[in-house]
Amino acid sequence: MIRSLLHQIVARPWVYDTAQTIVGAKKVRSRLAARIAPVRNARLVLDIGGGTGSVGGLWSDSSRYICLDIDPQKLRGFTAKNPTGIALLGDATRIPVAAAAVDIVLCTNVTHHLPDEALRLMIAECARVLAPGGRLILSDAIWAPQRRVGRMIWHYDRGSFPRTAEVLRNAVSTHLTIESWDQFAIWHEYFICVASRKEAE
Question: With 0-12 CB in 10 A as exposed, 13-18 as middle and 19+ as buried, what is 38?
Answer without folding.
Answer: exposed
